Amino acid sequence: MLPLERRAWIEQMVLEQGKIDIENASKSLEVSAMTIRRDLRELEQEGKVVRTHGGAISSQSLTKEANYAAKESQNKKQKQEIALRAAAMVEDHSTIILDSGTTTFELAKQLSYRENLTIVTNDIKIASELMGSKNKVIVTGGEMQMETGSLLGTATQQLLKAIHADVFFLGAHAVDYNHGVSAPTFEKALIKQMMKQAAQTTWLLADHSKFGKRAFASVCRLEEIGGVITDSQVPEAARSSYENKVQVLCGGV
Q1: For 3-61, CATH number?
Q2: pLDDT computed for residue 17 by the predictor
Q3: What is the pTM of this model?
Q4: What sign does the dihedral 114-117-123-129 (CA atoms) show?
Q5: 47: which residues sit within 8 A by CB, 6+ positions away?
Q6: Domain 68-250 classified CATH 3.40.47.10?
Q7: What is the domain partition of the chain in residue ranges?
Q8: What is the pLDDT of residue 252?
Q9: Is 98 in contact with 119 (CB distance < 8 Å)?
Q10: Which part of the chain is the HTH deoR-type domain (predicted)?
Q11: Rounded-to-integer distance, Cα 63 and Cα 108, Å
Q12: In whole angstroms, what is the distance from residue 99 CA to residue 119 CA?
């Protein structure tokens, strides 16, 4: 089989199954594992697959980041349900970290009516929403991502290294049972990891559309967080499955 034909076969298998294993592909095509690795490298450079440990997945299976306006309008009612449940968990006089994102923005709206909280965020829109509230608001600083208003970079990291918080509310780009929480870029994943390290406990805020998906960069496994707050549209069977790894609460119920 010619290299071009072999790569076409691999690409078809990935499209049909969502992933491919180097060992199995090597046996099926009767070539060495090294040859399959070279083929996967070529296909990745063409944007057709994303290499993983021991194989590859379809590039179409990775969720990409939409702009803020698009994300804000998606599942807004469900995000509000999640925010109400999360806000009820915030104790007076506590220090919390709000991740950037539209679900945490809905939580910020709820917290704007509270007093005597210390709220740390790397989201310009969240900081703006909290202006005029009777809370202390700390903005991390950093380089602003124009599409979303989130702050990233060295300045953001330096502040996060220096603080201690009670709770971190983590925004989700994608949540997968086996692979946990993931983000669209390494830089975003790093900031989320540092926020998690700065807090005593972490709660993931994720509407039903985020489950069963993977993004480019890993943030953490589900077993590493305190719990998940989602909406009532997550199927009961899926919720029960996730509860084997982490506490799951539903807003709006």
Answers
A1: 1.10.10.10
A2: 76
A3: 0.73
A4: positive
A5: 59
A6: no
A7: 3-61, 68-250
A8: 66
A9: yes
A10: 3-58
A11: 25
A12: 10
What pLDDT digit, counting tens, does each position of 23-42 carry?
999 999 999 999 999 999 88
> Does 68-250 match 3-61 at the fold level?
no
Only one residue has tokens 């780009």, namely: 173
How many Å apart are CA 171 and CA 157, to the nearest integer? 17
Question: DSSP letters along the chain, please?
Answer: --HHHHHHHHHHHHHHHSEEEHHHHHHHHT--HHHHHHHHHHHHHTTSEEEETTEEEEGGGB--PPPHHHHHHTTHHHHHHHHHHHHTTPPTT-EEEE-SSHHHHHHHHHHTT-EEEEEEESBHHHHHHTTTSEEEEEE---EE-TTT-BEESHHHHHHHHT--EEEEEEE-SEEETTTEEEESSHHHHHHHHHHHHHEEEEEEE--GGGBT-B-SEEEE-GGGSSEEEE-TTS-HHHHHHHTTTS-EEETT-
pLDDT in tens, 162-206: 999 999 999 988 999 989 999 988 999 999 999 999 999 999 999
Confidence at residue 235, expressed as pLDDT on a 0 to 100 scale: 82
